[in-house]
């Protein structure tokens, strides 16, 4: 009896290996070739949205910190 026979992690890994090795290519939902252009465009879009979101938050923070107190002072006078 080897040390790995009773190890639950080893058993789980072996089970995964057996199940995945039994899969056929036709069973896979992934395309055979990755769509590099699509992934690149999606990444660029998500980065652009993140940058725009950060700029919007910065502008809002500046507005809240600077303009709102000035507006409040002006409104009181």
What's the quick description here?
The chain has about 80 residues and is mainly alpha-helical.
What is the H-and-E element order?
HH
Strand content: under 5%
Average pLDDT value?
A: 70
Helical stretch count? 2
Structure characteristics:
77 residues, mainly alpha, 2 helices, elongated
Helix-strand blueprint:
Elements: H1 8-22, H2 36-76
Describe the structure.
0% of the residues are buried. The chain has a domain at 40-77. It is elongated, with a radius of gyration of 28 Å. The termini are far apart. It contains two helices and no strands. The chain is mainly α. The model has no long low-confidence stretch (mean pLDDT 70). It is 73% helix and 0% strand. It has helices at residues 8-22, 36-76.
């Amino acid at each position: 009896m080897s040390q790995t026979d009773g190890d639950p992690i080893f058993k789980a890994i072996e089970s995964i290996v057996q199940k995945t090795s039994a899969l056929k290519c036709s069973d896979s939902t992934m395309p055979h070739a990755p769509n590099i252009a699509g992934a690149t465009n999606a990444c660029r879009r998500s980065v652009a949205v993140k940058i725009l979101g950060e700029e919007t938050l910065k502008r809002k923070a500046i507005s809240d910190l600077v303009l709102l107190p000035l507006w409040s002072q002006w409104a009181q006078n």
